[in-house]
Amino acid sequence: MEIKVVQDAKNIEADILVVNQFEGEKTSNELANTYAVEQDNFKGKFGETYLLPTYGKEIYKKVLVLGMGKKEEFNPNKLREAVAKAVKKAMQMEAKKVSFFFDGIEFDYSEQFTMGAYIADYAFDKYKSEKKDNKVQEIYVQANADNVKKAEKIAAAMTFARNLANEPAQYATPSELASIACDLGLETKIYNREECEKMGMGAFLAVAKGSSQEPKFIHMKYQVDNPKKRIAIIGKGITFDSGGLDIKPPSSMLTMKDDMSAAACVLGVMSIIREFHPQVEVHGIIAACENMPGCSAYKPGDILTAKNGKTIEVDNTDAEGRLTLADALCYACELGVDEVIDLATLTGACMVALGTNAAGIMGNDETLIKNLIDTAERSGERFWQLPLWDEYFDSLKSDIADMKNTGSRWGGASTAGVFLQKFVKDVKWAHIDIAGTAFLDKPQKEFIKGATGAGVRTLLTYILEQ
Ligand code: BES
Ligand code: MN
Ligand code: ZN
Predict the structure, then answer these.
(1) 171 and 104 in one domain?
(2) Which CATH number belongs to the domain containing residue 216 in this structure?
(3) According to DSSP H, which parts of 283-411 are helical?
């Protein structure tokens, strides 16, 4: 798909001309007004569409009226969703050239227009022997060309992340993630098992023990002279989460190839960062391994020593993400960065609390958290703050070690958060739980089922705004 910025989008020889209609109002198109609005009483409710042919009387073959909902409720996020809807409709009709003419929209819609189009124009069909040929080839729109370009790059990073998270665990192994990281053209260091052992990463390595896949600790660096800020982004990289010896039931295990969605997000961000040349130093960190119940697997009751010397009694081998993140957080804190942001498909509890439209965010710095929530909102994602009160640590107390890796079922997202906090030292830190938003089991808004590239838009926007 290619987006072409034009001067007059309503005079294009297209398969479809898309025009907007605010609820109860007219459109910019006479045919649409006569047949859809007046004759057929089409209202323009949000997300509704009306298609009419032009019978060779216009240079476009059809007009698609796109319902935008009430004008006073309209915003860039709704625009993105509506555009995605139109692109999907065009794909169904196998239209190749689609022109969008928007009238009466009072903000610069260039970025969210582009995001909506690219998010909708996604399929994971590499393993289909017969691929559908329904992609839109050309989109015409009146927009700000620079903002379209910027959004195209962010969208490409999202697609990169979605492809990686959709990839089956048999292929997207820790070694594969490491090799992908090495191919991004950044300064990258991969630590193998022995090197991680030397660094004292006893929590991360314990999780890797039950698998025949070698663990890989990945550190990518984007560097500039005199950076305004130094940021580390960490992504949970469990390439498959069987639960380990505390094995998951089949229905819960079914989508667990997605447990490296946060790693995919970090790789997506790092894959495009150089093209923006932001004046910030960014470290991308992934502790990649598989959580399997092999004969060397770590066991409930084992006591692990993390990189910072803290000891952890294994209460449940399925709470593996926080163990791998513990060592990754220690590592990141030693880099002397200003901020550490970790993302993880960490808890089913977060998904229960917030659903699939919002990620949970917590941390030790209110300004950083507020900033990320605001950036998410403007980027088209939703973050919602969860508390990190000391009381959440009560259930993690162990009789024989510094802590256990799981505690009470109640408040599970915050309990995981306070666990992680024990491995954060002298740095501003935010933790984003994307368990609900990273991977969809049915289509939602502009997304098809499967990986969403959660976190990519927000992190990139955040980095670019420093
Ligand atoms: N990867 C899962 C969390 C998850 C659940 C992600 C559903 C996406 C969708 C994580 O490793 C896990 O198993 N968490 C446990 C923690 C529990 C044992 C304290 C959970 O949420 O059940
Ligand atoms: Mn688990
Ligand atoms: Zn997991």
Answers:
(1) no
(2) 3.40.630.10
(3) 321-333, 348-354, 366-379
What angle is formed at CA 287 by the lines to CA 286 and CA 290, rounded to 5 degrees?
A: 125
Domain that holds residue 125: 2-143
- In this structure, the residue with its CA closest to atom 8 of ligand 1 is 435
The pLDDT tens digits for 140-197 are 999 999 999 999 999 999 999 999 999 999 999 999 999 999 999 999 999 999 999 9
Q: What angle do CA 163, 168, 170 make, to 5 degrees?
A: 135
Pocket test for ligand 1, best of 239, 254, 347 (most atoms within 8 A of CB): 347
Specify whether 130 is located in the same domain as 164: no
Q: What predicted TM-score, i.e. pTM, was given to this entire model?
A: 0.98
| Last residue in a domain, options 121, 143, 165 | 143
Residues within a 6 A CB radius of ligand 1: 241, 259, 316, 318-321, 345-349, 351, 406, 412, 435
Choose one of 290, 346, 440 to mutate for the ligand 1 pocket test, by most ligand atoms within 8 angstroms of C-beta: 346
Q: Band of the pLDDT at 133, cuts 50, 70, 90?
A: confident
Determine the 3-state secondary structure of 355 from DSSP.
coil
